[in-house]
Structure formats: C-alpha cells, structure tokens
Amino acid sequence: MSFRSPVRLRLAFMWSALLALIVVMPGGTALAETTKERVLREGKIVIGIHNRTPWGFRDEATGEAKGWHPDLLRAAFAELGVKEIDIRVTEFGALIPGLLAGRFDAVASGLSITPERCRQVAFGAPDLKVHDAAIVLTGNPKQIHGFDDIVSQKIIM
Question: Looking at the Swiss-Prot or TrEMBL record, what is one Pfam family this protein matches (predicted)?
C-alpha cells in the first residue's frame, strides 16, 4: 500500500490509532484473549461514538451512524477483514463508562487525552490536535493576549 495518497495515509494513521485504542477486556477464560485478537478472529467490532455532527451522528431517517469517524472506521476495519462494524451512538459522558463495562470494544469520538482519562483507558495516537484560542474584536480593544487576560475580564461572552 502506497502512503503517498493523503486518504491512504489518513486511513493508515487512523487504523494504527484505533488498534492502539482497543483495550484489553476481561474475557473470563483461562487463556486471556485481547480485544484486538477477538475482533480480528470474529471479524466484528462494537465501537461507541457520541452524537456530534459532522464527526459522528445518527442519521434520523435511517438510524445509521454517519459522519467522519464512522466513514474512517468502516474503511480502516474493512482493510483488516473486519466485516461487521457495529457503531453505536451514545451520549459523550457514556463513552468511557461503556468501554469499561464492555458495551463497546473501542470508542472513537474525539476524546481529549487527559491524565484522568489515561488512568481509566488506553489511548491511541490522536487523529486531531486542536489548540485553545480566543476570538477578539477587531483591534483587540480589551488587550486579550492569554488566559490571564481572559480571567481578569468582568464580562465574557
């Protein structure tokens, strides 16, 4: 596979991130099988996403999960031979609890990597990096140049 195509590069990156995100869940058997091993053996995976357009959302007409994350997930797992991809749309706050409870094999839904979340689950490589920014009026009349300037303001919209 050539990685010169931006689409193929993005798919390869997304796949590596997804594999790293899949967490080992207790199997209850004498021989521990990782989630990754089970998914590849069975050819099916359950993935949790939250309802946020355009990244991932439930199409009201069909009930199907649509958007950027579902498209990437389907393409990445299809290349691995995973034929059954069950993408479940849930509330954002239910993603990590659902993963820990075994309702999902993985989540792919724009979770920021924080120390608290890292104590609960394993993360793969991020597929998006966003910096914080403030939008100011033309000419920056309140002279906002950083977080300290924002905190000192009495009125913030």
Answer: SBP_bac_3
